[in-house]
Specification:
The complex is a heterodimer of chains A (116) and B (113). Chain A is an all-beta fold. Helix content of chain A is 0%, strand content 47%. In chain A, 38% of the residues are buried. Classes of the chains: A mainly beta (116), B mainly beta (113).
C-alpha cells in the first residue's frame, strides 16, 4: 500500500507570505493527524481529523494556522501570514483507529518549512 | 520540562554491539507507549506499541520493556547494524488529554564499522 505522502518536501517563504502544506493519508484511514517539530524540540501535536471533522485542534498554535480535510481524504494545512517561529518540520500521520486504541500511526516524511 | 525524557541524548556504538536506550515519563494515566525509529529526512516509523499492562514487546532485533510502576521504558537493540543509525523516539499516549501522543526528544544513535 502507498504510504502517507506530503507535499512539498521543502518550502522556503518570506515572513508574511502564505504557505499551504498537503497531506495524502493511507487510503481508508479515517484518522489524520498533523504534528510539528521546531528546531531542537520534540514533535508536538497540532490537530486530529476523523474523516472530515476536526476531532481535536487544541495543539494549533494560533489562528494563523488553518487545517482542512474536505471530503475526508487529503488534508491541507495553511499558514497565513507566516512568521519566523513557524519554521520547522510539519508531519502528517494517519491511522485506522485512534491512538488510544493502540493503532499504529503511519507518518509521512514531513514538509520542512523555512520562514525567512 | 517535557513529560517524556530520553537518555542518552546521543550514542555511538560499534557494529555488532548491543545497546539500550532509556525513556522516563511522567504522563499519567496513559494508554500506550510507543517507540519509533526516524531516519534523517524521513518520518518516524513504528517499532513497538505497548499497552500499560504489557511488560515487553519485540520486533526483530528491537525489544522494548515497560515498567509502569517506575514510569520507565527501554529499547534494547541487539547485534546493531549500520542501518540502525537513526533517532529513536519514545512516545506516550496521554489519557488525560484525549490520548494525544506526547513525544520525547529522541536519542540519536550512530553505529559505526
Amino acid at each position: 500500500e502507498a504510504g502517507v505522502t506530503q507535499f512539498p518536501s521543502h518550502s522556503v517563504i518570506e515572513k508574511g507570505q502564505t504557505v499551504t502544506l498537503r497531506c495524502d493519508p493511507i487510503s481508508g484511514h479515517d484518522n489524520l493527524y498533523w504534528y510539528r517539530r521546531v528546531m531542537g524540540k520534540e514533535i508536538k501535536f497540532l490537530l486530529h481529523f476523523v474523516k472530515e471533522s476536526k476531532q481535536d485542534e487544541s495543539g494549533m498554535p494560533n489562528n494563523r494556522f488553518l487545517a482542512e480535510r474536505t471530503g475526508g481524504t487529503y488534508s491541507t494545512l495553511k499558514v497565513q501570514p507566516a512568521e519566523l517561529e513557524d519554521s520547522g518540520v510539519y508531519f502528517c500521520a494517519s491511522s485506522q483507529g485512534w491512538t488510544s486504541m493502540n493503532s499504529p500511526l503511519h507518518f509521512g516524511n514531513g514538509t520542512r518549512l523555512t520562514v525567512t | 520540562k517535557n513529560q517524556v525524557e530520553q537518555s542518552p541524548q546521543s550514542l555511538i556504538i560499534l557494529e555488532g554491539k548491543n545497546c539500550t536506550l532509556q525513556c522516563n515519563y511522567t504522563v499519567s494515566p496513559f494508554s500506550n507507549l510507543r517507540w519509533y525509529k526516524q531516519d534523517t529526512g524521513r518520518g518516524p516509523v513504528s517499532l513497538t506499541i505497548m499497552t500499560f499492562s504489557e511488560n515487553t514487546k519485540s520486533n526483530g532485533r528491537y525489544t522494548a520493556t515497560l515498567d509502569a510502576d517506575t514510569k520507565q521504558s527501554s529499547l534494547h537493540i541487539t547485534a546493531s547494524q549500520l542501518s540502525d543509525s537513526a533517532s529513536y523516539i519514545c512516545v506516550v499516549s496521554d489519557m488525560e488529554y484525549g490520548n494525544k501522543l506526547v513525544f520525547g526528544a529522541g536519542t540519536i544513535l550512530r553505529v559505526k564499522s
